[in-house]
Amino acid sequence: MTNPQEYGRIFKVRALSQNQPTDIELRPSKAEMAQIASELDLIDVRKVLFSGQLKAAGKNDWTLSAHLGATVVQPCVVTLEPVTTRIETDVTRHYLAEMPELGDEEEVEMPEDENAEQLGSEIDVSAVLFEALALNLPLFPRAEGAKIDSAVFTEPGKKAMTDEEARPFASLAALRDKLGPADEE
Fold first, then answer.
1. How confident is the model at residue 6, as a pLDDT?
2. What's the rounded Cα separation, in Å, for the pair 47 and 33?
3. Which pLDDT tens digit goes with each residue over 64-90?
4. Number of domains within the chain
5. In terms of DSSP bridges, do strands 116-118 and 122-124 run parallel, antiparallel, or are they unpaired?
6. pLDDT of residue 110
7. How many CB atoms within 10 Å of residue 103?
8. 74 in a domain, yes or no?
9. Would you say residue 31 lies in a domain?
10. Which of 30, 79, 104, 120 is deepest in the core (most CB within 10 A)?
11. 91: number of Cβ within 10 Å
């Protein structure tokens, strides 16, 4: 995974002001965006801006509220042609000094706040940028007009199975058709 420290900021919790929010603005360089693209198997990453604030939430906790804007280029899942997507998303993380109890091991429940993380001695904002970008990438990018009509794959020299043959009752229907109409008694 990319070492986010190379293009971002890590804040020491003890150095953050309890009374004033800390402004954050990350703009990775071209080389850093190329590194991110490589780590996420993208063709290109452009125009990345991660901006927001880190502020105290009570006596021991912290909240990161930010906005991620990025342009990414991925290969189309059908044609492999480049597909450009603009990502705009708000990002929130709650850094808690004490995480809520999850119950016993047999009944593990999801925490109520999916944005809660254990507070350590540092808050790595660049890791949050990387994670938010990875989570918001289109899973199946498609070039305009790209579609799969039918795809058939098999080993050389063998007959490929069609979609119709792969259906659960296709072989029974073929057998019924081969035997002819059922005899009525």
1. 45
2. 9
3. 999 999 999 999 988 889 999 999 999
4. 1
5. unpaired
6. 53
7. 9
8. yes
9. yes
10. 79
11. 20
